[in-house]
Amino acid sequence: MGLLSDLQNEVRDIFAAQWEMTKAYVVPDPEDLKLSNDAREFERATILYADLSGSTSLVNSQSWQMAGEIYKSYLACAARIIRSLDGQITAYDGDRIMAVFNSDTQTSNAAKCGLMINWAVINIVNPALKRQYPTRDYSVKQVVGIDTSEIRAARIGIRGGNDLVWIGRAANYAAKLTECRNDYPTWITENAYNYLADWAKFGGNPRQPMWTEFKWEAMNNIRVYGSSWWWSIA
User: Fold this and answer.
1) Cα 199–83–229 angle (5° rounding)?
2) What is the pLDDT along the chain (234 residues), one digit of tens a residue?
3) What sign for the dihedral angle of Cα 183, 185, 191, 193?
4) Within the chain, what is the greatest distance between any pair of CA atoms?
5) Which is it for strands 142-158 and 186-189: parallel, antiparallel or unpaired?
6) Domain segments of the chain: what residues?
7) Which uninterrupted H or E stretch holds 110?
8) Considering the entire predicted model, what is its pTM?
9) CB 96: neighbour CB atoms within 10 A?
C-alpha cells in the first residue's frame, strides 16, 4: 500500500470512529489518551496564550542571538509565572506559550498571570535587554489572551510524533486575542471577565477597575476586556 491509500484509510477511519469521552479534572499527558477518537472532557477550563509581539520584525532587524535571548527570557518568565499560579503548560509554539488553568479560581489565576507577565516584561526582561544591548533601540512587547469554556483534549499525530489538541472555544479565542493591540497587554473575553473574583477585577489605592471594556471587531463586536495594569512579583 502506498502513502495515498494509507492517508485515505486513516482519514476515513477517523471520521467513522465513535468518540470515547471521559470526564477530566486534571490536565492529561498525551500518553494518557489513545490515538483513536479518545477525548478528555473538562466541564470548564481557562486557557491562556502568551505571545511576543512583532517577532517577525525582531528576527528581521536584530541578530539571531538577541532574538533567541528575548524568546528564551520571555518564555522562561511566562512559564514560571504560569506554574506559580497552578497553571499547566500544554504547548510552546515558537514565540508563544499555551497554558490550562482548572482550579476553583482558575480564571482569576489566569488573569493575575497575565498581569504578572506584563510586570515581568517591564521590570525584568526589558531592563536586562537594555543592559546587554545598550545601543539597540528595541523593547519587548507582548500580549496575553484568556478565555474560559467547556473544552476537550484529544491526542493527535502519529506514533512517535504526537501531542494534545484542545478542542473548544476557549483555546481558539485565547489564541486569537493575542492579535489585539499591545498597549493593553492582557485581554480576556466577557465570559472570562464574569468569572473573575473582585481581587482580579479591581486594584490600586483607592480601588479601581483594572479592565477596560472594548468591542472585538474581528469577532463580530463581542465584548472583551483589556488591561494595561500589572501585578508586582515579590
Assistant:
1) 40
2) 689 998 899 899 989 999 999 998 888 888 888 988 889 999 999 999 999 999 888 999 999 999 999 999 999 999 999 999 999 999 998 899 999 999 999 999 999 999 999 999 999 999 999 999 999 999 999 999 999 999 999 998 877 777 888 999 999 999 999 999 899 999 999 999 999 999 999 999 999 999 999 999 989 999 999 999 999 998
3) negative
4) 71
5) parallel
6) 19-25+37-227
7) helix 106-120
8) 0.92
9) 22
Q: Could you tell me the three cell numbers for 65?
A: 542571538
* 3.40.50.150, 3.40.50.720, 2.40.100.10, 3.30.70.1230: CATH of 19-25+37-227: 3.30.70.1230
**What residue type is 195 in one-letter code?**
Y
Instruction: For residue 25, list its beta bridge partners.
Output: none
Cell of 111: 488573569
Residues 6+ apart with CB under 8 A from 228: 118, 183, 184, 185, 212
Which one-letter amino acid corresponds to residue 13?
D
